[in-house]
Specification:
With about 220 residues, the protein is of the alpha/beta class. It is built from 9 helices and 6 strands, in the order βαβαβααβααβαβαα. The chain has a single domain, classed as HUPs (Rossmann fold, 3-Layer(aba) Sandwich). Strands 3-2-1-4-5-6 form a 6-stranded parallel sheet, with helices on both faces. Strand 2, helix 2 and strand 3 form a beta-alpha-beta unit. The chain binds adenosine-5'-triphosphate. Adenosine-5'-triphosphate binds next to helix 1, strand 4, helix 5 and helix 8. The site of adenosine-5'-triphosphate has 19 residues, from helix 1, strand 4, helix 5 and helix 8.
């Protein structure tokens, strides 16, 4: 079985995430995409993130209604608590799926995330444990976001959300995938909801229903 690990805050999960996961299944031939919501991302201010329980439920509802069995929620980072490091997650998942993998795990990220990869904890270990799949995302997503709702680095994280990915100088082996550029981000969706603007078709139907039922991001 070929499994791709897709980590994110998913605050909330949106159609850009769904499109990326579908690309992994259809175009790269993976059998499963594991959605791994972070508990506390090392690089985002936790006070802006709604509870893990809400994020888990939105992903669970999405995976039950979309993906024809190829999408699955993986709760290990939330179960572990504390700051979520990808190297710990990949170590755990490699053991969990021992004997079931036809090749090592893949780890999926957008290119704005890849631009900061070198500043992560243990990037060498992440690259050793997983094939890195980098998806080209739209170039100025972060520029579209107003500072009020944008992510701010937390703790001692020294990254910069506006850095551009440079494939030629990326030091680790990777698979680079061009995917349609959906101009969607969780930040923009949170802003739209709090301003009473339309957001219905920016998120999968199950996520829309959950946000409405629970008055999230108002
Ligand atoms: P936020 O706006 O709160 O930072 P986000 O929309 O960037 O959130 P995350 O949950 O932080 O979403 O992202 C998880 C992963 O999904 C990252 O690898 C990111 O590159 C990717 N991703 C996010 N939005 C898109 C999109 N529109 N198209 C493709 N990939 C995306």
């Amino acid at each position: 079985m070929k499994i791709a690990v897709f980590g994110g805050t998913f605050n909330p999960l949106h159609v850009g995430h769904a499109m990326l996961a579908d690309t992994i299944i259809r175009e790269l031939g993976y059998d499963k995409v594991l959605f791994v919501p972070t508990f506390q991302p090392p690089h985002k201010d936790a006070s802006k993130i709604i509870s893990a329980q809400h994020r888990l439920k939105m992903i669970e509802d999405f995976c039950a209604s979309e993906g024809s069995g190829h999408f699955e929620l993986e709760t290990c980072e939330v179960d572990r608590g504390g700051i979520s490091y990808t190297s710990d997650t990949l170590e755990y998942l490699t053991k969990k799926y021992e004997g079931k993998l036809s090749k090592k795990l893949a780890f999926v990220m957008g290119d704005e995330v890849a631009a900061e990869f070198d500043k992560w904890r243990n990037p060498q270990k992440v690259s050793a444990l997983a094939d890195l799949i980098i998806i080209h995302r739209y170039p100025d997503v972060k520029a579209m976001e107003s500072s009020l709702y944008a992510n701010k680095p937390s703790g001692d994280y020294k990254g910069d959300f506006s850095v551009k990915f440079d494939l030629k100088n990326f030091k680790y082996p990777c698979i680079y995938v061009e995917s349609p550029m959906l101009p969607v981000s969780s930040t923009d969706i949170r802003r739209r909801i709090s301003e009473g603007k339309s957001f219905r078709y920016l998120v999968p139907p199950a996520v829309f229903d959950y946000i409405i039922e629970n008055n999230l991001y108002d």
